[in-house]
Amino acid sequence: MSRWGRKRIRIIEENCVLCHLCEVACVVAHSNSKDPIKAYKSEGLRFAQRFRLLFAEPVFENPVTFPAICRHCEHPFCVDACVTGALEKTEEGAVVSNLVRCIGCGNCVVACPHGAIRLVELGGRRVALKCDLCQGWEGEEPACVMACPNRALVLEEEGKESLPLEALLATDGGSPESSSPYVIAGGGPAGTAAIRGIREVDEEGRIILITPEHLGCYSKALLAHYLCGEESEEGLIYKAKEFFHRNGVEVLLGRRVVRLDPERKRVVLDDGEEVEFRKFLIATGGKPFVPPMKGLDKEGVFTFTDFEKAKEAREFIEANAKRAVVVGAGFIGMEVAEALSRMGIETTVVEIAPRILIRALDDRGAQIVLDLLKGRQISFRTGDTVEEIMGDGRVKAVRLRSGEVLDCDAVIIAIGVVPNTEVVEGTTIEVG
Ligand SMILES: Cc1cc2nc3c(=O)[nH]c(=O)nc-3n(C[C@H](O)[C@H](O)[C@H](O)COP(=O)(O)OP(=O)(O)OC[C@H]3O[C@@H](n4cnc5c(N)ncnc54)[C@H](O)[C@@H]3O)c2cc1C
Ligand code: SF4
Ligand code: SF4
Predict the structure, then answer these.
(1) What is the domain range of residue 102?
(2) Number of the ligand 3 atom closest to the C-alpha atom of 111
(3) Are residues 352 and 400 in the same domain?
(4) Model ipTM?
């Protein structure tokens, strides 16, 4: 939480002379010792300031210099972009990062239009650092504001931003339907980001979130960590009960929307219950794509796009597997292979493309990842695919198109996802 209420740091570029004093003050305020020498020399925080100082060549006469500090936006794109729940907006409006949850993916860095997030190496991990409005600092103002001798940083009441959702949601504000709830199908990042968006323009309207997942709103990006036991079931959850309570959201866990009736403004749930809505958001994400191959029904075959499947895979592999085959060498396949190798499972990745990560990285980048994973005892078969999963009831091996047979006890299919559009099937809504 921020001690400054709704005040924010404003940057006055004309006054900034790039003296770096704000940077030093930021590092010290976030150090354990609160001592500049210890912070820089023994706590390893030399590059751990929570903003960057920018210098641009002169446009007219003078160079432009200023610290790119977080605006703690009303609509923080960074929070919406983070798939692990490492970033959140507190009740007081500060946008803060939880370094324990951060996996250093950099989505937030790309999403922030102000360049206010830095990816840095801290304690052997790459994490996203950003201004947290000096939580835990006991000064009268944030440390950078106090340190700046030129008043290039000032703490003041934030102005009201324009609300992009307002126009959209206000369209039926006064209609008789406005007492009906907003209904959201899906509790992933899209569904939960929508809750925040709705609350910014409508503080009281009823919101119902429906999700078939019993675990609630959890991070899929952490599933591979869960597979190898490095993350707990509870640790996956990134929107806890308090978030829904605070936002007055009714959450229907373990329930699925099976039909949409746009004319009557109702959705039908899997148990036949009908729920009326004012606005309905389809945030149902994707479902695993599974290519045709023989033997898919064998025990020991898993997809890897939701918690239930990851849990089944983990329990089965821990109890039964010494060797596994991962089908697909995209990001998810690579994550799964790496997690399996951490579990001590002899792992082979089969990829139909001529090399791994074909849609994600260039040749050089992919080679770096390949070398890293080969060093972890993971084997690869590229330009090939699984044609048959063999075994009597339970997986024993896979036969590749090339004819090679790989002995294994488990197969994880990680080929990608296709949009989950079942909700609109049978309606006139176009899927594009
Ligand atoms: C293993 C794995 C690792 C990943 N790692 C990363 C990463 O490191 N970085 C990154 O940026 N992205 C990563 N992703 C992708 C990221 O998780 C997705 O982009 C993101 O979850 C999409 O969010 P979403 O809300 O659109 O959909 P989802 O998160 O898929 O959520 C959709 C929700 O809708 C629910 N639903 C489906 N049908 C219905 C229905 N009929 N009624 C009600 N609810 C329904 C689903 O159960 C699900 O809970 C990863 C994905 C996976 C599977
Ligand atoms: S990090 Fe960027 S997007 Fe996120 S709140 Fe700060 S300024 Fe906004
Ligand atoms: S780098 Fe960390 S905080 Fe940023 S989006 Fe990724 S997990 Fe979230």
Answers:
(1) 7-157
(2) 5
(3) yes
(4) 0.90
